[in-house]
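Example 3.2
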Amino acid sequence: MNRLEGIYPSDRVTLREVGLRDGLQLAKALPSTDAKIEWLRREHAAGVRHYEIGSFLPAARFPQFADIEAMIRASEDMGLHSAGLTLNERGAEAALATDIREMVCVVSATEAHSQANMRRSRDAAVELVGKVAAMRDATAPGKIVNAGIAMALGCSLSGDVNPEEVVRLAGACLDAGADLVGVADTVGYAGPKAVGALCARMTRLCGDRPFIIHLHDTRGMGVANAAAALDNGARVIDASLGGLGGCPFAPGATGNVVFEDVVFLAESMGFATGIDLEKLKDARAIAEEAMPGEEFHGALHRAGPPKNATWQAVGAA
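Structure, written as tokens:
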């Protein structure tokens, strides 16, 4: 069963907007549910179709995701592809009871981060991917299981990471039943050379199956790293509106690579995204209004697209 068919087309770059999940995990000011839904609505009008919209975590500890069921309903009403983070069995059970379309599991590339983030070994995390896939097969066979390899390009706790080990873990997740795998520069550790080399390895591993590259801009390399990823076979990129987000294991991190800048990058490199840059300004406006005090980033937002550019994204396909 090819659950990815039609979801991640091979003839264009798919950009997953993760601002409503990764972008909110350390936010001080939280948008209301109505503001989040308007955020979705305005990005939908701009042509954005893929989102991480929250995490299946205890609402008492993570109030920013307490409304995930309302966000799923809104996503379904708009016909969007929704993904949610499922860090454990309880989260997977909760996700399976909803209409979320994609369940995101996490496997750390290093033992130190795996224990700090999930209190599991890496082998146990891969086993969890298999459990989630089996649960999906039994109760909701249409859902996608996505396994992301965190700290894949370097770890703030352990330092350098062997790319062969990352590829091994990604392959183990596919063997365990994941439909899709991703690699994350969780703390913005790497530069373009390392990102390009890992993406080339992932391209060989996955063949015709897409993989995700998740980038952070901690050290200002986000857009350069996205270009290297595109040059080496990546066709699905995570980014957040205004570069919101950050990782608790990367003090001083500036968040994810900026969604608007990655749209501009992809289009300027000749990859269609179906996203209208001008209309993205409306989505950013609602996020800025709903999150006063949060720091938003983006070179394109400051300077605008070049005058009389020979390409223009024209909106949803």
